[in-house]
Amino acid sequence: MTSQPVVSPFAKSSFSGGGSANECVEVAHTADGGRAVRDSKNLAGGLQFYGPGHWAAFIDGVKAGTFGG
Fold first, then answer.
1. Nearby residues of 41 by Cβ (< 8 Å), 6 or more positions away
2. Helices in the chain by DSSP H: which ranges?
């Protein structure tokens, strides 16, 4: 997906723990209803963009146990 305007603040994943030693994924809403994802420990690494359909499929997969540990 091409970049979209980010329309909300980035929020830390609920699976990211506190402290600087933990990995931290942050997600924000985009103008088209999708999401922008970034690694808060590597902001220079840029953003990944997911359209609404792809984000919904990812969330459905997580809920079904298809993704994750």
1. 23, 24
2. 52-64
The per-residue pLDDT for range 2-30, each reduced to its tens digit, is 789 999 999 987 766 655 555 688 999 99
DSSP state of 33: S
Q: Residue 2 carries which side chain, given as an amino acid letter? A: T
Residue 50 forms beta bridges with which residues?
Answer: 35
The whole-model pTM stands at: 0.77
* Burial status of residue 6 (CB atoms within 10 A of its CB: 0-12, 13-18, 19 or more): middle
Which two three-digit tokens encode residue 1? 């997906």
The residues with which 11 forms a beta bridge, in sequence order, are 27
